[in-house]
Design goal:
- The complex is a heterodimer.
- Chain A is of the alpha/beta class.
- Chain A has three domains: about 160 residues, Aconitase, domain 3 (2-Layer Sandwich); about 90 residues, Aconitase, Domain 2 (3-Layer(aba) Sandwich), CATH 3.40.1060.10; about 180 residues, 2-Layer Sandwich (Aconitase, domain 3), CATH 3.30.499.
- Chain A is built from 15 helices and 19 strands.
- In chain A, the strands form five sheets. Chain A has a five-stranded parallel beta sheet.
- In chain A, helix 2 crosses helix 5, helix 12 crosses helix 14 and helix 12 packs parallel to helix 15.
- Chain B is globular, with a radius of gyration of 20 Å.
- In chain B, about 30% of the residues lie in helices and about 15% in strands.
- The chains are: A alpha/beta, B alpha/beta.
Chain lengths: ~475, ~210
């Protein structure tokens, strides 16, 4: 018998979903899960209805409220975001009419879509999953092939349960070696983007591998995959292993009984074959990575917390130089000086990048017995209602509150400013989120991306701080 | 979707990398569930003085003739960031029907093609040359983009060929309804699902 052609993980999942080859390296893929949210889900459902079409398979469609709803305790359909009630109503009515299940306000399963999809077992290894949100790649951390889509593509999936996709280039990034103290998945991905640029993974399906990745929890793998899109990648993925399988087992929508056995047998095959060919491979020396903080307005503009901010004058390429100069004009970081000690006005822990229970535990370990510096607005928004309840069961909420953090309900919250909720007068924020774009978190707000550890340490210091100085020494 | 065949018009230079969709259309500017009314919101943070609707004369799209731009020339990774399709709607409703860049955010690019906005990828030296010509004092400002021939003509007359996937080109040229095309394969989709339900029954067990 001829030996089967060696395949990558992404190719195996891709082939298992190929409904039709459309030519031009494009495949019509079956979509196993579509997740909707109130920011764009209503528009998609409306579009389908307006075209006189029906939702193809509502049993494979899930919805939650996360983007627009308030995160203050006691929240209702009323939102600080102007126009929010209309989005919520349109989404809820559209979903009800189409028979789509929604994890609504007050539902213990509600939360940020990319946090609850794994939590509920809606996301699983080997599934294709799409959502009208660029950070859908987060659930690649479980070995799902997942990517963000627009409204028109969402209408396509609702109408056909399929989506055409062009075969991506295959990129493997191997993080090898042990992580240093206080170095997290967030620091790995920020350094990767810092070293290779915000388009370093342009259009690629990016498989994260290597000993450092094998050693990460599912939550940390999701943080890694979350920012694949900030690397310009089409998606990011980690091969499922025992860590994944243990994570998925027993979750509400995970396979049960005989289905579990069958699923498990398939999941065990979901890894890149030894001889599989990638178009490109990047190897990163993980022990060399320090806790990272961004200094500019792109995730590629990051440095180790104690390292100097680069000088645009050193950049030969004129567009790169102009881009760096524009970023520095906005952030007012000082070239050739480290960010360490730069005063902040706010600290934020939350978002689909870093709001899982592991993130909250890590931050709480620094905050325990300490206080947020005077004048700093500190906010913690758990990624899901389940994470919030788990944290409360562990007493983490008390640690956050006693330190001076606001303790909120689950949602996307201040990851982006949408015209309502804001950091108040704070103009410089250290944040566990994924985007430091101009005005992303508020008009004129400068965002410094970092891990929850670095955010917690900086909240206490009142300035950008090195978390290694805060671990184990209250 | 309106077919895209050929476009001749003013091209505006935006010589920076990583122009993100938050810059193209800030989140706070998308406060309605409808697809219209985005033209005046395009680049709102850069186009207007902070907290106002007073145009900032320093911003390129506020300067004649670029306020009439039909084409935008940027650098690397244009449209990175959020999946918001309103970024495409805002460009189109302002009047821009083609963006030329070295590369694009993947989701933004998909959204362009599905709305009839042509994303043209050129090499960085080619993009740089266009940017230089567009920024040169007293230079020509008009370009020609021909999707049938897959070439653009720079303001100074030089021509550059570009490549685009055959399916995407077809969809843009015809203004095709992709959903209708896929639904014409319904039998194939159902056959796949019948096979797949036997191979991976757990995928469909979501009760």
């Amino acid at each position: 018998m001829p030996r089967a052609q060696p395949l990558t993980l992404v190719e195996k999942i891709w082939n298992a979903h190929a409904v039709a080859e459309l030519g031009d390296a494009t495949t019509l893929l079956h979509i196993d899960r579509l997740f909707l949210h109130e920011r764009s889900g209503g528009r998609m459902l409306q579009g389908v209805a307006a075209a006189g079409r029906k939702v193809f398979d509502p049993s494979l469609v899930f919805g939650t409220l996360d983007h627009i709803i308030d995160t203050d305790p006691g929240r209702t359909d009323k939102t600080k975001f102007p126009g929010g009630p209309e989005f919520i109503r349109t989404f809820r009515d559209g979903a009800a009419a189409a028979g789509v299940r929604v994890f609504d306000i007050g539902d213990p399963s509600q939360g940020i879509v990319h946090v609850i999809a794994p939590e509920l077992g809606v996301a699983q290894p080997g599934l294709t999953l799409v959502c009208g949100d660029s950070h859908t790649c987060t659930v690649g951390g479980l070995g799902a092939l997942a990517w963000g889509i627009g409204v028109t593509e969402g209408e396509h999936v609702l109408s056909t349960q399929c989506l055409a996709a062009r075969k991506p280039t295959l990129l493997r990034v191997r993080f090898e070696g042990r992580l240093g103290p206080c170095v997290t998945a967030k620091d790995l991905i920020l350094r990767l983007i810092g070293a290779h640029g915000a388009r370093g993974g342009a259009g690629a399906a990016l498989e994260f591998a290597g000993s450092a990745v094998r050693g990460l929890s599912c939550a940390a793998r999701m943080t890694l995959c979350n920012m694949a899109v900030e690397f310009g990648a089409w998606t990011g993925i980690v091969a499922p292993d025992d860590v994944t399988i243990e994570f998925v087992h027993g979750r509400r929508f995970a396979p049960k009984g005989l289905d579990w056995d069958a699923a498990l047998a398939w999941w065990r095959t979901l890894r890149s074959d030894d001889e599989a060919a990638f178009d490109r491979e990047i190897v990163v020396d993980a022990p060399a990575i320090e806790p990272q903080v961004t200094w500019g307005t792109s995730s590629e503009q990051s440095v180790g917390v104690g390292e100097p901010v680069p000088s645009p004058a050193d950049l030969a390429d004129p567009v790169a130089r102009a881009s760096a100069e524009k970023a520095l004009r906005y952030t007012e970081a000082t070239p050739a000086r480290p960010l360490l000690g730069l005063p902040i006005g706010a600290a934020f822990i939350g978002s689909c990048t870093n709001s899982r229970i592991e993130d909250l535990r890590a931050a709480a370990a620094i905050l325990e017995g300490r206080k947020v510096a005077a004048g700093v607005t500190a906010i913690c928004v758990p990624g899901s209602t389940a994470v919030k309840r788990q944290a409360e069961a562990e007493g983490l909420d008390q640690i956050f509150k006693e330190a001076g953090f606001q303790w909120r309900e689950a949602g996307c919250s201040l990851c982006f400013y949408a015209g309502g909720d804001s950091f108040g007068p704070a103009r410089r924020v250290i944040t566990s989120t994924n985007r430091n774009f101009e005005n992303r978190q508020g008009p004129g707000v400068r965002s410094h991306l970092a891990s929850p550890l670095t955010v917690a340490a900086s909240a206490v210091a009142g300035a950008i701080a090195d978390p290694r100085r805060y671990v184990g020494h209250p | 979707m309106t077919p895209f065949l050929r476009l001749e018009g003013v091209a505006a230079p935006m010589p920076i990398d990583n122009v993100d969709t938050d810059a193209i259309i800030p989140s706070r500017e998308t406060q309605s569930v409808v697809r219209t009314g985005y033209g005046e919101k395009l680049f709102a943070n850069w186009r207007y003085r902070p907290g106002t609707r007073e145009p900032d004369p320093a911003f390129v799209l506020n300067q004649p003739p670029f306020d009439q731009a039909r084409i935008l020339v940027a650098a690397r990774n244009f449209g990175c960031g959020s999946s918001r399709e309103a970024a495409v709607w805002a460009l189109q409703q302002f009047g821009i029907a083609c963006v030329i860049a070295e590369s694009f955010g993947a989701i933004f690019r998909n959204n362009c093609v599905r709305n009839g906005l042509l994303p043209v990828s050129l090499s960085l030296p080619e993009v740089q040359r266009l940017l230089d010509e567009l920024q040169k004092a007293g230079g020509a400002r008009r370009m020609d983009v021909d999707l049938e021939a897959c070439r653009v003509r720079a303001p100074g007359g030089a021509e550059f060929a570009f490549r685009i996937g055959a399916l995407e080109r077809e969809m843009l040229l015809k203004g095709a309804d992709e959903i209708a095309l896929t639904l014409s394969r319904r039998a194939q989709i159902e056959a796949f699902r019948d096979r797949d339900r036997r191979a991976r029954p757990w995928v469909y067990a979501t009760a």
